[in-house]
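hey m, so remember when u said the tokens were messed up on ur end? i reran from scratch. heres the input so u can diff it against urs
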Amino acid sequence: MDIKKALSYTAIGFLLTLIEFNLTLNGATVNVTPDFIGWLLLFLAFDKFGGYMAGRDYLKWCFLALVIVKACEWVISVFHIGIGVPTVIGLIINLAEMVIMFLFFGVLEKVTRDVCPEKESTVRTLKIINLALMLGIVVLGILFALTESTAFAALVILVGVAALVAAIVTAVVLFQIRKTAMAEQ
């Protein structure tokens, strides 16, 4: 069990799954922080958490499934393949990501309880904040797609900025927990 490495993978993976940084060159837009790399890091963190993941093998395979799905989405977007992800399927994928992240945050709470108990309530709070913001982005994105209202577009941007801040705070907290784990060894 290598909690330090698992927490590093998790912090970086979490950021990559929630942050989208697009670069546009010659009219082509590429996400330079692809989700599939974040999910791959979470997949790699799974075994490093050891006993904390006992009975949660389904999460490992969910991470792997999301690696594949998100890699396909990224390749389609990079190479401008004429296949788009239907809105309903995209919604199902987003909801699956939220459920998986919620379950994984439960594991992080247990790790935090053992490694850095003073941060447990912080991790629990961050779980709720991150999931609420993810849900907010999905719901507002759907409302914007249906209405094309600039008000919903503005709300999506505001919630997106809040989600970015929450993701960064979450990563910082995970690195603080990692630092505590290193100090104990």
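this time it looks ok to me. The longest helix spans residues 150-184. if urs says something different then somethings off w ur setup not the seq
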